[in-house]
Design goal:
One of its GO terms (biological process) is methylation. The protein is of the alpha/beta class. 32% of the residues lie in helices and 20% in strands.
Amino acid sequence: MTTTAVKTGTLYGIGVGPGDPELITVKAFRLMKECPVIAYPKKRMGGKSYALEIVELYINTAEKDMLGLVFPMTKDQDTLDREWSRTVAQCWEHLKEGRDIAFVTEGDPNLYSTFIHMARLVKELYPEVPVVSVPGISSVLGAAARLGLPLADGDEQVAIVPARNDRFAMKKALEDHDAVVFIKVAKVLDLIIDLLEEMELADKASVVMKVTSSDELIWRNVRELKGQELEYLTLMAVKK
């Protein structure tokens, strides 16, 4: 007697944009409506993620299985392996029953997103599961729109750089490109501002925090941010 393999659900990585709830695609909207399970990044200390706040505007959460996933913010490999295995196992409990999951993420699922690692692990541990990503508007493009800043035209080159405490690397990025967007810039803001002053580029830079959201803040004069502590979701755009 032959047995028929049970078809698993599909894992969708859905980009819901940088903050403004209207910046989602029609496809993202449809899949959020159709998928019985909505997975979202869950904050350990309470409070809703941007992604969840956006989702709640478009679906009735009482009609869905809402799967809040905590992602470890640590560099300890044992902790990372344990927590990620737990997260993927939570998803598998639904996928093995043939239930589709819409994992919603800020920005785009393939650009500095937790979905990248999740998709990789699911493919490794459960290769039978279809994994599909749905592109979204990234904070980089959201910032360009809010600043009225053409990032690249013609043969110009643009770089998206995670800001870090490496003066040489940050300087080289600025030297080698016509435009640079430093993401996660808050933790090394003073270093970058000093570098801009040194390269006479301070007047070419702007900083945006929580871009396109109702809490958005924009600074056109980056010098006034020296010594300030900004939130994690802060980026800086520099256009020569």
